[in-house]
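To start, an entry.
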Amino acid sequence: MLSQFKLYLSLERGLSSNSIDAYINDLNDFTVFQETQLKKNLKAIRKDDLLDYCEDCKSRDLNDSTISRRLVTLKIFFRFLHQEKIIAKDISEHLESARLSRILPDYLSIEEIEKLLQLYDESIPLEFRNKFIIELLYSCGLRISELCGLRTDSFNYESGFLRVKGKGSKERSIPFGTQVVAMSRQYIKSIRPQLCKKNNPPELIVSNNGRPLTRSRVWQFLKEAAHKAEISKNLHPHVLRHSFASHLLANNADLRIIQELLGHADIATTEIYTHVEKTRLQNIHQKFFPRA
């Protein structure tokens, strides 16, 4: 069954080999749980079994992003099983539970985003670059790989869209606002040339010596930024992407539009943000309503 699913991911969904390997690794882990704990075949598995698996992942101290990804993998896998008529019903279709609140992706508030952006002195080239990176990750909802893959000609100022190469080498266009317009123009015109004294690679984001900036360096300076801004959350590039999606949803953006902006191949991946919003509303209710 895993080999059939792998073929489906490759031929019908056009995913890259790395993405397919990630899905299969997730399912291999679930298979171990299925055989040792559930002791059921695929047709006998129910929604609560999937939630129990998530709890098992949590008990093994897997991080929240890994568990969230595995949940999405299960949703896609069981949808595939239903489409292939291997199971009678897609048990993951309405997979919701209070237990999911513990495995949701973390995200920053608008106030925390502002605190991050206010850290930097724009007159210093490296600090301007770092602020620009945060602005891009948040305002455009980019993956770290997409950020590092941007080029100086990725911005189309006439149309107001940023061209991005996402997973599986699929291109998509993302609208950008006035803040990104101003910062990108200044970065390309005056900041980047100061960093590219000897090297001039095609990549947009470069280091102090003009070489393409590595993903690990972005992770590192975000950790430093969170510490300086006194943000206790585990800040990494994907948290800014989560924040982008969560803030769109909080302002009533359509889930399908968010899916397109994020470049998700399947709406099931985007649906995790509906749980984020419900959890936020529950927290507000519990904090402010006197009889909560």
Observations:
- The chain has two domains: 2-102, 110-281.
- Strands lie at 155-156, 161-165, 171-175.
- The radius of gyration is 21 Å.
- The chain is about 60% helix and 5% strand.
